[in-house]
């Protein structure tokens, strides 16, 4: 079972909800991700997501759309929304729920279209996987933005999950980690378990530096309650062709 996430979403969509998804990382114990949460409506969303949806405009690309919650809300508001995910099960669920344009796509393979708003939510920076791939993804996302377009993406500073160091403001990070926000994830659902896969959480300072290097302006527009934040990324004036 490669598409564990999609299988769980399909089970819930078809009324076969008996278990939740379980997640774990290399720095944390197993945690529960309730399936109903993955089908939440606007009123149940955290403020960061609401802010992103409220500030979305024009033609929208919803990357890593999952069950399609954000796409459905924006579609109902009259926006032109394209929903993409690498999970075939997730895209099937999106279509069953009424998302008009939902496709199985890898963001790095998209071309020939540009968007006013690109959404990457629920730790959108996770798609970068590792520090060394950030620029690859940012260059691709930049190519998909219209001149006055915006990328709305959320992430978290995981500094709070590590013991404090001797020096003020420092933390103690295991030697095998290249960066404290580079995690290894596993997903469990029923009798299936995924292979370990990389997930990246970015602090604001590091994220801003990578944006600067790639001709992008970075601005934090909202802060959450758990060291998370929502950033608005646009093409820098001196980088526009």
Summarize the helices and strands and which ones pair or pack:
Layout: H1 4-13, E1 21-25, E2 28-33, H2 47-54, E3 59-63, H3 69-76, E4 80-85, H4 88-97, E5 102-104, E6 115-120, H5 134-143, E7 145-156, E8 182-189, E9 192-193, E10 197-200, H6 204-213, E11 216-223, E12 228-235
Parallel strand pairs: 3-4, 3-6, 4-5, 6-7
Antiparallel strand pairs: 1-2, 1-8, 7-12, 8-9, 8-10, 11-12
Helix pairs in contact: 1-4
Give an overview of the whole structure.
- With 241 residues, the chain is an alpha/beta fold.
- It has a single domain (4-239), classed as Vaccinia Virus protein VP39 (Rossmann fold, 3-Layer(aba) Sandwich), CATH 3.40.50.150.
- Helices cover 23% and strands 30% of the residues.
- It is built from 6 helices and 12 strands.
- The chain has helices at 4-13, 47-54, 69-76, 88-97, 134-143, 204-213, and strands spanning 21-25, 28-33, 59-63, 80-85, 102-104, 115-120, 145-156, 182-189, 192-193, 197-200, 216-223, 228-235.
- The strands form 2 sheets. A 7-stranded mixed beta sheet has the order 5-4-3-6-7-12-11, with helices on both faces. Strands 1, 2, 8, 9 and 10 form a 5-stranded antiparallel beta sheet that branches.
- Helix 1 (4-13) packs parallel to helix 4.
- The N and C termini lie far apart (45 Å).
- The mean pLDDT is 94.
């Amino acid at each position: 079972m490669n598409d564990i996430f999609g299988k769980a979403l399909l089970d819930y969509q078809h009324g076969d909800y008996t278990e939740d998804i379980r997640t774990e990382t290399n720095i944390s114990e197993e945690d529960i991700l309730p399936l109903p949460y993955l089908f939440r409506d606007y009123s149940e969303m955290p403020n960061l997501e609401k802010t992103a949806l409220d500030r979305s405009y024009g033609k929208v690309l919803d990357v890593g759309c999952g069950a399609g919650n954000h796409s459905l809300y924006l579609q109902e508001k009259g926006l032109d929304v394209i929903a993409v995910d690498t999970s075939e099960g997730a895209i099937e669920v999106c279509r069953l729920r009424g998302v008009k344009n939902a496709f199985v796509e890898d963001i790095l393979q998209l071309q020939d279209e540009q968007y006013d708003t690109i959404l990457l939510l629920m730790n959108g920076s996770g798609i970068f996987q590792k520090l060394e791939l950030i620029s690859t993804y940012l260059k691709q996302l930049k190519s998909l933005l219209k001149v006055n377009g915006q990328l709305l993406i959320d992430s978290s500073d995981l500094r709070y999950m590590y013991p404090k160091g001797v020096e003020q403001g420092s933390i103690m990070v295991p030697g095998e980690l290249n960066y404290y926000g580079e995690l290894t994830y596993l997903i469990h659902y029923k009798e299936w378990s995924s292979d370990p896969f990389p997930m990246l959480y970015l602090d604001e300072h590091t994220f801003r530096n990578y944006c600067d290097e790639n001709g992008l302006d970075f601005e934090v527009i909202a802060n959450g309650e758990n060291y998370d934040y929502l950033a608005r990324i646009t093409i820098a004036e001196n980088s526009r062709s």
